Structure formats: C-alpha cells, structure tokens
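Is this the right way to post structure tokens for a design question? Let me know if I should format differently. Anyway, here goes:
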C-alpha cells in the first residue's frame, strides 16, 4: 500500500498515516532524548499489515526500524496489532507494551511472551524514562471505549494524549492538513455512535481525561484528525452528551419505522421533482463511493427498508450527499420539505436542517461512506 505519509507534530513526535479519504489509520512515533546520545523511541498503534512495507520505510527514514524500543497498542483490533509480530522481528530490542486484556487476544499472533510488558504492573500505571527524571508516560484506563482493556496514554511533557479509537472519527473535513476543524465533528460523532458501546462508558473515559493535569492540548486518535486547541474541550463536551451504541439502539428503535417513513416520503418527493431515473442514478453515484465504513441505508425495490446507523444522522448525511451539485433554490426546497416531513411524523428535526446553509455540508465534508446498498 503506497502513499504513507509522515508529519512532525512537534519536535520528536511524528504522525505516520495512510491518507485514505474516508477512513484513515494513524500511528505515532515518540522519540524522547534520555541524554545527549540516547533516545527512547516509542511506536503507538502501528499501521495495519496491508501498509507494512511503506510503514517500515517511513519509520526507517525517521529513526531506523531497528531503533524502536517500545511498541504500544491501545487495544487488540487487527488494524493496529496485525503489524506487531513483524515489527518485533525487525526491531530486535523492542518490547510490546499493552494491557493484559489486550495481550490475552494478541498473544494469538504467537508473540514471544518474554517480549511482552503488561501495563498493569507498572507502578501507578506510569512508565518512567529514567530513575532521576519525572519524564514518563501515564496510562489512563478507558474501559469499553471501545474495548475492555483499552488505555489512553498521556505524555505530560508535551501535553499530548494518545487515545486509540476514543475521539477518533471518519475523515469529514474538506481542508487539507492533519488537524481537526469544526467539520471534523460529524465524523467523530458518527464513529462513536457506531463503535462505542454505551454513553456511560464514554462518560467515564471523558471524566478520566478531564482529571488530567495539565489538560491535554493535543488529542492523537488512531483514526481521523488530530484535535488541538479549543476543540479538545469542545469535542469532549459534545461527546459527553451523545447517545452511542446500545443507548441509541434502545432509544431510536422505537422511532425507526417513523424515520423510514420520512426517508421514503422524501424519496417520493425527489422522484416527483427530478424523475425516478435521475434519483436512482444519483443514489447509485453515492453508493459507489469507496469506503471502509458500514452502509447507511438499504434500498429494496425503490423503497428504503433499513437504516443501519442512528436514523437522524443517516438522514443528514444522505440529505447532504443528495444535495451536492443542486442549485441553492433546490437545496432550500428540499430542506424545507424535509423539515415539514419530520414535523408530520412528530419527530425532532435534526439541528443541521434548522438553518439555511450557503453550501451543502458535504461541500465541506469528504464523502465518508459507501452509504447505500441497492
């Protein structure tokens, strides 16, 4: 897999990522000087095995692959652990650091147990770089976000927090660069709705982050954009309030049939306005967008029969995808008709529809899904 890119975030801290448009993977390399001649090199959440050749080259260019000292994974998923055995083969002095819960599963890769170090035996869950220094990594338990044994890692010296899937997201901003902006939020929200199990687990993790002193200035997730500045607190506050996993399933299952009626009423409206052939063609164009994400809706015999993610979020995404390249007048007609349809079924109107936008949200977003199964 080509086109792996590396970026220096601050001196000694690097992002290595595959710049896949819709759902990218992030790995981080922290190179900490212990003295004038020695550095401690820690690799966080390696890129998956399909990226291995170019990933190794990127590391080689930065520090030399043989100079990795520690390989850390937040949890057990193959998108960050599948490269660990081969990396250990190339980095003979490196050891593998993770939680015991994670090791219980990743030991299936036949990793030498002597090269495994469990987080849980570290005093106060801190890895000190030397006896005479306060420089250390702090391991912050974030259970069930989204894995039982997940730990975020805080490096106080740089005020950076490595969070794994927590605060990760699909790539939903149009602007270039590695840092999140306001448009990143919808990808973060959707990712958590799909992959985090409960609001209670998410709030516990957010509380743990809020107790860190000093508060992190950079959030380094495994997917999506790096979060910095005021957006750190802002996105944490928003995540604290959303329904995820079982919460939204329980809440919205009761309203799901009504949302499907909204979808189909709007589909009929679009067909009457633009013709059935044009609408189906537009939906087909949406459906062929490349993605690693699950479908949003299912269409059978010209009727929407299933919604796979939170219905309100699904509607906003499909609405914006559909409105691409329409005139401002047509966009406004569809927006007003959508609001009327939600009110018809006594459903809350999604916030994104309540105000007129000068351009479609998707004009600001990258298309992030293979959204429709037809």
């Amino acid at each position: 897999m080509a086109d792996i890119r590396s970026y220096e975030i601050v001196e000694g801290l690097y992002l290595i990522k595959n710049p896949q448009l819709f759902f990218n993977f992030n790995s981080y390399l922290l190179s900490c000087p212990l003295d004038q001649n020695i550095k401690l090199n820690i690799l966080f959440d390696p890129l998956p095995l399909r990226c291995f050749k170019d990933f190794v080259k990127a590391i080689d260019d930065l520090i030399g692959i043989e100079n990795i000292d520690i390989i850390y994974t937040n949890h057990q998923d193959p998108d960050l652990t599948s490269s660990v055995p081969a990396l250990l083969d190339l980095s003979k002095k490196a050891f593998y650091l993770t939680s015991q819960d994670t090791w219980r599963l990743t030991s299936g890769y036949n990793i030498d147990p002597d090269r495994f170090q469990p987080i849980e035996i570290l005093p106060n869950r801190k890895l000190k770089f030397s006896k005479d220094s306060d420089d250390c990594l702090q391991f912050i338990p974030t259970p069930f976000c989204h894995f039982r044994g997940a730990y975020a890692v805080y490096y106080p010296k740089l005020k950076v927090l490595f969070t794994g899937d927590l605060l990760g997201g699909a790539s939903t901003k149009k602007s270039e660069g590695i840092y999140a902006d306001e448009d990143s939020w919808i990808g973060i929200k959707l990712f958590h709705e799909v992959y985090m199990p409960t609001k209670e687990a998410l709030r516990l993790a957010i509380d743990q982050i809020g107790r860190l002193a000093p508060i992190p200035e950079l959030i380094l997730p495994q997917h999506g954009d790096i979060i910095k500045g005021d957006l750190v607190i802002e996105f944490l506050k928003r995540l604290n309030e959303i329904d995820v996993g079982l919460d939204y399933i329980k809440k919205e299952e009761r309203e799901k049939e009504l949302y499907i009626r909204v979808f189909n009423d709007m589909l009929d409206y679009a067909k009457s306005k633009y013709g059935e052939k044009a609408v189906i063609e537009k939906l087909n164009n949406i459906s062929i967008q490349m993605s690693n994400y699950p479908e949003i809706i299912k269409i059978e015999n010209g009727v929407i029969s299933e919604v796979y993610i939170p219905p309100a979020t699904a509607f906003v995404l499909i609405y914006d995808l559909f409105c691409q390249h329409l005139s401002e007048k047509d966009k406004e007609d569809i927006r007003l008709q959508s609001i009327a349809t939600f009110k018809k079924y006594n459903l809350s109107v999604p916030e994104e529809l309540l105000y007129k936008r000068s351009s479609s949200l998707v004009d600001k977003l990258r298309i992030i899904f293979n959204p429709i199964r037809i």
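Format looks fine. Someone answered above. Worth noting: The mean pLDDT is 88. The chain has two domains: 5-248, 254-373.
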